[in-house]
């Protein structure tokens, strides 16, 4: 197993040991592969996700059988909905005891069935090299996703005659379609050329396929404005004239307005989930839709498509740009959008004695180096970041599909191991912080330089907002204790310096010092519970 | 609307649970599902009869194709395939009713494979529709038990659903 990982060029893995995975951990001692001990198995998967998204290579995480494996499920499901390439390795009880409910036995391949791209239960040690080769191939090609390898302890200790790592995976039922169909590309180009109010919707697929520069080129040459899904944030610098922000129920007014008024929507690597487009039928009645995706099952699933193109965007984007040739959107469309941008812009309302998180995030993003990685958690903090972080050449990492609270801190750890030279910043709420704060231990133990900003409103803000708007202000179970925890003391327990701020001026001053500090740092911003998400 | 799909899969542990799990979690309705090995022992064929509109059928095909052990999915167009289902039917049958039942069996091309003092057991192999007709004829006598294999189907003419074939 260790040799397989070495053959795949794996240099760092995230995990938590246990009896059923001990043979693997024993061999790991003799390898150059760095193992990062997390504080809970779910976070090993999130860390692998942050690593994968920042490095472009599959992230690897390891846990033991039973509870170790079941703890991973939420992380695996998160990676699945976010389409992140992950190899999850779990120890399992001895193969001859499978099905007898022995200590720490859980049917993890069965339990993960709906959340993995594929899974293996190893029944023959000699199959290990082939299985690892296939797993890495499946996870990282086509639409990326998690692959689970469940390995009974005897499969870890059995000797095999000779070790040979296959150079290629050959899976009869898995041949992802890479090349876009020429006829479809031609049809799409014709649609674009005959449109007057087109818009591009860019999703996470644009980032995972690494075509964002090509997409920007295409947008600039044609003048087609770009909106992104939450997973697509970062496809274009936020302040680019053609970038209109995130669409959807928590998105920018101008982005949604443009979608509704357009005559052609070019969907690139996005599935258009319910949070992005609430009423897809209305949209497809008004505008034509080009849908480019590597996963054929996404086409026609959520929205009716005029021209589908299945394939890898790396191939399709440049061919589509060539096929479109000289074209520019009508100046009217351009002017209208500029006007909407101004009309729909609103300054956030401030509350005395609190940090205004939206204007702070905007200001803070300009203090960051241009390639910084910002990891947002889930809740109001996520929306504040998605709409106000001014991304340049860096990354914005968050979980858009599953929306798993507690994602940010472990994902930032993974991102830091992938990109140690970059500034990595976490922005989370006090609710989500408390779901991931056990990983401060991992940060401290590895002397990681990760900056953490906690937006503290002593509420579960997102749900509270929902209760305010839809449940007549009957707040149920959304109040967090105002007295505990003492965030300063928690940071102190892990030897992480921390400061609290109660105004934007204060917060900006501390943030500037924080960025100068070499090492991890925590800034706690007191935020009014009445600050809305958008 | 009923759809008949022929699915080739790698003959490995857990394939059936992957497919049946997919149906339940995506809310597809299965009428019948029949599994058997093909001429190549490494590959099994699953014939699925499912209910749903065109959107459901399209998603069904695409989601099945996403499963790694699934090699090929073919949805048969109506009229382009032959289908059969094997049924074993045990019917209440006193001595006086025996000639009537044998007559029904002969008329429908069902085979009498067992008889006892108060029952008779028929073997019937035909389409699901024909099976329904036979059951309607037998119901007045009292069907004790019916065991159906689920539909298996094959394309008409020269075309076939195989790993190599382009269709």
Structural summary, described in words:
The complex is a heterodimer of chains A (534) and B (167). By secondary structure, chain A is of the alpha/beta class. Chain A has 3 domains: 2-157, Rossmann fold (3-Layer(aba) Sandwich), CATH 3.40.50; 182-343, TPP-binding domain (Rossmann fold, 3-Layer(aba) Sandwich); 357-526, Rossmann fold. Chain A has 22 helices and 18 strands. Chain A has a 6-stranded parallel beta sheet, with helices on both faces. Chain A has a 6-stranded parallel beta sheet with strand order 9-8-7-10-11-12, sandwiched between helices. A 6-stranded parallel beta sheet of chain A has the order 14-13-15-16-18-17, sandwiched between helices. In chain A, helix 16 links the parallel strand 13 and strand 14 (395-397). In chain A, helix 3 packs parallel to helix 4 (67-81), helix 3 (41-55) packs across helix 17 and helix 15 packs parallel to helix 22. The longest helix of chain A is centred in the first third of the chain and has 15 residues, at 41-55. Chain A is globular. In chain A, 54% of the residues are buried. The mean pLDDT of chain A is 95. With 167 residues, chain B is α+β, with helices and mostly antiparallel strands. Chain B folds into 2 domains: 2-76, ACT domain (Alpha-Beta Plaits, 2-Layer Sandwich), CATH 3.30.70; 84-152, Alpha-Beta Plaits, CATH 3.30.70. Helix content of chain B is 28%, strand content 41%. Chain B has 4 helices and 9 strands; from the N terminus they run E-H-E-E-H-E-E-H-E-E-H-E-E. Chain B has helices spanning 15-25, 54-66, 98-108, 128-138, and strands at 2-10, 29-37, 43-51, 70-76, 81-92, 111-115, 119-126, 143-148, 152-155. In chain B, the strands form 2 sheets. In chain B, strands 5, 6, 7, 8 and 9 form a 5-stranded antiparallel beta sheet that branches. A 4-stranded antiparallel beta sheet of chain B has the order 2-3-1-4, covered by helices on one side. In chain B, strand 6 (111-115) and strand 7 (119-126) form a beta hairpin. In chain B, helix 3 packs antiparallel against helix 4. The longest helix of chain B has 13 residues, at 54-66. The radius of gyration of chain B is 19 Å and the shape is elongated. The model of chain B has no long low-confidence stretch (mean pLDDT 93).
